[in-house]
Amino acid sequence: MMRLLGVNVSYALSPQAKGKTERPYRWLQDRIVRTCALENITTSEECRTVLKKEVNRYNNHQVHSTTGEIPTIRFEKARQEGNSLFRPFILPKPYTSIKDVFCIREKRMIKGYRRISLFNHEIEVPNISLREQVEVHLIPDIERNALEVRLWWDNQMVHSVAYPLNSFSRVHF
Question: Are residues 58 and 117 in the same domain?
Answer without folding.
Answer: no
